[in-house]
Amino acid sequence: MTYAAPLDDMRFVLNRLAGLPEIATLPGFEDADPELVEAILIEAGRFAGEVLAPLNSTGDRQGCRWFDGKVATPDGFPAAYQQFIEGGWHSMPASTDIGGQGMPALVSSAVAEMWKSANLAFSLCQMLTMGAVEALVNHASDTLKQRFLPKMVAGEWTGTMNLTEPQAGSDLSAVRTRAEPDGDHYRLSGSKIFITWGEHDVAENVIHLVLARLPDAPEGTRGISLFVAPKFLVNPDGSLGARNDLVCASIEHKLGIHGSPTAVMSYGDKEGAVAYLVGEPNRGLEYMFTMMNHARLNVGLEGVAVSEAAYQHAVAYARGRVQGKPIGGAERDPIIYHPDVRRMLMDMRARTEAMRALAYCTAACMDRARHHPDPAVRAPNQGRVELLTPVVKGWCTESSILIASTGIQVHGGMGYVEETGAAQYLRDARITTIYEGTTGIQANDLLGRKLVRDKGLNAGALIRDMTEELDALALTNDADLSAIASVFKAALGAFEEATAWLLTRYDSDPREAVAGAVPYLKLTGIVVGGWHMAHAARIARDLLSAGEENTAFLHAKIATARFYAEHVLPEAAAARDEITTGAGSTLALEETSF
Fold first, then answer.
1. Coil, helix or strand for 278?
2. Mean pLDDT score across all residues of the chain
3. Which band of pLDDT confidence, cut at 50, 70 and 90, is reported for residue 18?
4. The pLDDT value given to residue 42
5. In the predicted model, is pLDDT for residue 290 greater than 80?
6. Nearest residue to 64 via CA among 118, 125, 114
7. Which among 347, 315, 311 is positioned nearest to 569, based on CA atoms?
8. For residue 373, how far is the Cα from the chain centroid?
9. Are strands 157-162 and 205-212 parallel, antiparallel or unpaired?
C-alpha cells in the first residue's frame, strides 16, 4: 500500500478555511509560524508514506498474536514506533508545560490524519495515549501528573481507557469493577473489554485509566470513579517496579484494524491491582468524558483518513487498469476514462474534502475556545465545538464506509479480492462508527444534549454563519458559484426546517424526535460540509482572479465543490423528509412484529 499526504488540500483548508494564520497568533501558539508548520507537514507526510504505509497491509495480514498474557504486534511495528517517538511525533499535540510541542489542535489534526491514512491500526496507540494524557492533565493530582505524564507524553509509556465490561456495553451504569481502599492507593478487581492497545510490545509500560466503583458508591453512573493503574508499578525515582496484578486475558479476533490489539483486561486475579484515584470519588464518568470527547474528534478524523486512503487506492487502480473502450475514448484507455468510474471517484473525493474541512474547522474552534483571550470569542467557539463534535465523529465515519465501499466498486471484482488491498479500507472503517459511541449515541447527544438543551442557540448561530456564506455567493457573477449557491440554499433550508421541527417535536413527543436523530446528524454533516465546500470554491475563484499560482488545484477545488453541491447536497432534502414525515413510521411496528 502506498500513501501520499494530500498536502495541497491540507494547506488550503488549514490556511484558507480554518484560519491557521489567525490561530497562530493566539497565546501559546507563537511557535506555529508558517515555516515551521510547512516543515512539519512535509516531514510528517514523508514519515507516513515511507515508514507507516508500508506496514499497513503487513499489520492486516499478520495481526497481533497473544500468548501467555503477552501480545506481539506485527512485524515492523515496534521499530516504527521507536522511530515515531524519537522523531518527536508522539508529543506534538501536548502542551509545552508537560513536555509536548504545543502545536494547535488544528495542526495536530492534520498530522494525525496522515498517521491514520497511512496506518490506522498503528495510529490508535498514540490517539489513546494522548486522550489519557488529556484526562490526567485536567483531573489528576500533581503527584500523579509528575509520576506518569512525562513518559506518557514522550511515548515511552502508552495509555488506554478502560470503560465497558461484558455485561455493560454502552450502558456504563452497569459497570461492576470494584476499587477497595488500601492505604494510599486502591485495589482493583474486575474485567474490562475492548481495550485498544491494552497490551503490546512497543513500549515498556502501559498506563490504564479505569472506571470502577468504590464500596460505598451510589448506583448508576453517579457512582463511578476514575483510577489510574500501571502495568508495572512506578518506583519513587521513576524507575519501573513490580508487575501489577493486571493481565491481558485475550485479544479479540476482529473484522479489521488487525494490527491494533484489542484486549480483554483482567484486574485483581490475585491480591488486586494497585490503582490511584483520579480527582474526586464518583466523578469518574465526568472525567472520562474529557478523554472521550478528545477521542471522538480523532475518530472522526479516522473517517476522513480512511476515505482519503481508499480514494488514493482507487485512483491508482483506475489509472492503470485497462478494460473495455470508454465512451468517446480510445481502445486502450484505462478505466479512469469511463464516465461512471469518474463519477465514483469524484464522489469519493468530494465527500472526503468536505469531511476534512468540517474536521479541521472544528479543531480550529477548539483552539479558539481554549486559547483566545476574549471570553466573548471563547464561548461561541466552545458552543460550536460541542455542537459539531458528534457530527464530526458520526457523519465522517458513516461516510467513510460508503467511500471505502465505493473504492471496492471502482476495482470491480478485484476489489473483493484481498490481495488488491481495497477491502482492508472497508473492514478498517467499519469499526469507526461504533467505538467511542455508536452513531446512534452521537445522534442522541447532538439532539438531546446539544440542540434541545440550549433551545437551538448554537444551531441558530451556525445557520446564521451559513446564511452569510450564501449571501456572499449571491454577490458573485460566476456560473460555478451560482450553481453551488442555488443547491446550497435549498439544502440550508432543509436543515433549518428539520431543526425547527425537532425543537418543537421534542417537547410533545420525544420518542418521535429521537427516531429522527441519526438522519439529523447526517443532514447536519451534509449541509455543514456543503457550506465549507461552497466557501472553498469562492476562495478558489478569488485566488484565481488575483493571479494565484497552483491554478490546477484551484480549478479542481471549484469543480469538486460543484460536484458536491449537485450530487451530495440534494441528500439534505431526503434527510429532512425522513425526519419530519418519516420518524413516526419508525415506531409503528410493535416489538412483537419484528
1. strand
2. 95
3. very high
4. 98
5. no
6. 125
7. 347
8. 27
9. parallel
- Maximum separation of any 2 CA atoms in the chain, in Å: 80
pLDDT in tens, 389-404: 999 999 999 999 999 9
Residues recognised as catalytic: 436
- CA 319, 321, 323, 329: dihedral to nearest 10 degrees? 20
* 3-state SS assignment for residue 166: coil
CB 527 within 8 A of CB 569: yes
- Spell out a b/e string for 41-66, using b for 16 or more CB atoms within 10 Å of the CB, else e: beebbebbbebbbbbbbbbbebbbeb
Cα–chain center distance at 42? 22
Q: Which of 452, 512, 462, 518 lies closest to 492 in space, CA to CA?
A: 462
Q: Rounding to the nearest 10 degrees, give the CA dihedral for residues 275, 277, 281, 287.
A: -110
pLDDT in tens, 530-549: 999 999 999 999 999 999 98
Cβ-based neighbour number of residue 215 at 10 Å: 8
Phi, psi of 254, deg, nearest 5: -115, 165
173 backbone dihedrals φ, ψ, rounded to 5°: -65, -20
The 3 state secondary structure assigned to 70-104 is EEECCCCHHHHHHHHHHCCCCCCCCCHHHCCCCCC
Strand partners, 276: 228
Segment 82-88 mean pLDDT: 96
| Per-residue model confidence as pLDDT tens digits over 403-453 | 999 999 999 999 999 999 999 999 999 999 998 889 999 999 999 999 999
Query: pLDDT tens-digit profile of 506-533?
Result: 999 999 999 999 999 999 999 999 999 9
Q: Count Cβ atoms within 10 A of the Cβ of residue 143 and give its class: 0-12 exposed, 13-18 middle, 19 or more buried.
A: exposed
CB count within 10 Å of CB 346 equals 16
The full length of the chain comes to 594
CA distance 404 to 120: 14
Q: What is the dihedral of CA 151, 155, 160, 161, to 10 degrees?
A: 70
